[in-house]
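Morning F.,

Quick status update on the modeling queue. The single chain you submitted on Monday has been processed. Sequence for confirmation:
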Amino acid sequence: MRSLNHATLIFASKLFHSTKSIEQKTIFLLHNSTKLNHLLQIHAFTIKTSLDQSNFILAKFLGQLFSCSSFKNLPYARSLFDRIPSPDTFIWNSMIRAYLNAQNPRESTSLFFQMRIREDIVVDSFSLSLVLQACGRSVNDRDGKRIHTHVWKLGFLSDLFVQTALIEMYAKCGTLDIAEEVLNEMCEPDLVSYNVMLAEYVRVGEIESARCLFDKMPEKDLVSWNTLIHGFTAAGIIGDARQLFVTKRESNEALRLFHEMQLANVKPDKVTMVCVLSACGELGALNMGKMIHEYIKRNYIEVDLKLGTSLVDMYAKCGDIANSLEVFNKMGLKDVLTWSAMIIGLANHGFAELSLDHFSKMISEGFKPNGVTFVGVLSACSHAGLVDMGWKYFRSMSDIHRIEPKIEHYGCMVDLLGRAGCLKEARELIRSMPFSPDAVVWRALLGGCRIYKNIQLAEEAAANLLQLEPQVDENYILLSNVYSEAKNWDKVINTRKMMKGGNIQKLAPGSSSIEVDNGVYEFIADDESHPKSTKHWHT
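Structure tokens below.
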């Protein structure tokens, strides 16, 4: 026992001279041992005193072993478990949970079925909930359905704990329809059950189903609101014009939900703030973003790493670089995401030199950049026309930072070379890519061809682009603009005929937005969706 800390050792010495039983003394030592070598000494002591025959002591020992040792010691725990003559339900559950926590859900499931065939062991609701979690994590609905049968046979169909685990298991296995059936068949589903179903809808991107479920929930807590708000802020994927339009719509819905949450007198937390700031950034809702920042200050909410990064990103996306820099400079703790948000924000607003300065400072402070960081760095070079610097940073990705350039990095380089008039160099770079160029790469090259009126290369880029995206109107318009810049009117007319002949329509019409009374309203041509769209104003 000499390796125990001094205070514990003195207390243990007094304890062992007290009138307490050996079992009580051993339990005390177990509760005060936080290192594996201490536990091994105590285990040796239990063997010497025959306490290793006590299921109660063994359960305490296993519990402490799982809480203070790494998962690499799980084999030791398993060998101990296998030597127990008659492990009780608690010990079985402890082992099943240990494998689940060690990211080995299949072994958890296997242990459960071994437990099930033991006639002397009673399976309880905790056993079933654990193994259902294991099936969900391993996306194993075959065993999940078998366990559902056991739930029915053992009379746990009305157990809320087990029912919630069933919902989560089926949802994680992709069978949301069965998860819905389980929820609908519950006599009195509780808030936890609703929140689990809500979270799974959000996880798989079924945001409309999530909204419908949310609206019919009899009660909602902070978790419910945060889950749905997060769902709307994560629903849009920035990419082509149609996806960008969806992102704005979903972000607007997130802000509406936030207002509903306030009216319901539910106090937001950091998670809420991060989600709402993300929506403000996507919409460019600067006033709303500033209000959120003021709320954070008034309520003394700690601006931690994640919240600080969200503020930096929001201000940068809304074009308020001064406030973005102020928040960034006040942050005591930063990570690669914080630096990347600042670098990209500066690059996107034309502060190329400052963006690259921040990248240099990031490296000098020992931070390791990632692929996102280099998108910002290469964008800065592109906006400033820094071709040589762009090549330097691009090559440093693999040579120095061990980051293999992805297609978005090649796209940035093609854009940089195209803007600078290095069209042949851009074409050679596309040929050297280790993967097939996507539409973004060809569109970048086509944009460069428009600037420098290179019709031959523009036609090659357009041919590849139209093969990848034959229904995207922007590609035809870009090609038409190339011909127009070169005053080749016949080909302009032919391109427009191609659009009409292919029934090509605008995926997302041009739009404008305005921030009024903490709401962001977006308008497009012939838009009658706003409730006041029929109202005419006269001067």
